[in-house]
Design goal:
Blueprint (H helix, E strand, L loop, with lengths): L2 H8 L3 H9 L6 H11 L12 H5 L13 H5 L5 H12 L3 H26 L1
Length: about 120
């Protein structure tokens, strides 16, 4: 199957499929499921010939490695909530609605900052 046909089957461009194939982009679980469905193979097929050193480097194999570092816990850009929020934001088709939501969010953040200052005094 060509990259172009595979991409069409899972709703991607062939360039995106190339990035997965080269390892430039990580393949998420839902995308892996889509690929297994289109290629008519079980998801485990993609792991059958995984080298032992790769399997051993899995966070699940290293105690404590799967836990976020203190820096990551403080960084809102690495939180799942942020990713979900950004995805939902860009699903809003109407640019004027997106802009109003953006402005409202900034206003709420500013007001929240002021309220937080008042509470601490």
């Amino acid at each position: 199957m060509s990259q172009e046909k595979l991409g069409e089957a899972i709703g991607l461009t062939f360039q995106q499929v190339q990035k997965y194939e080269r390892g430039a982009n990580r393949v998420g679980a839902s995308r892996l499921f889509d690929l297994s469905r289109v290629l008519d193979v079980p998801v485990g097929f993609f792991f059958d010939e995984m080298p032992n050193d790769v399997a051993a480097s899995s966070p699940a194999q290293r105690p404590g490695a799967a836990e976020p570092s203190p820096e990551q816990e403080l960084d809102p850009l690495v939180k799942r909530e942020t990713l979900e929020l950004v995805r939902a934001y860009y699903k809003i088709q109407d640019p004027s609605i997106r802009k109003r939501l953006f402005e409202m969010t900034k206003a709420l953040a500013a007001a929240g900052g002021k309220d937080a200052d008042k509470v601490e005094d």
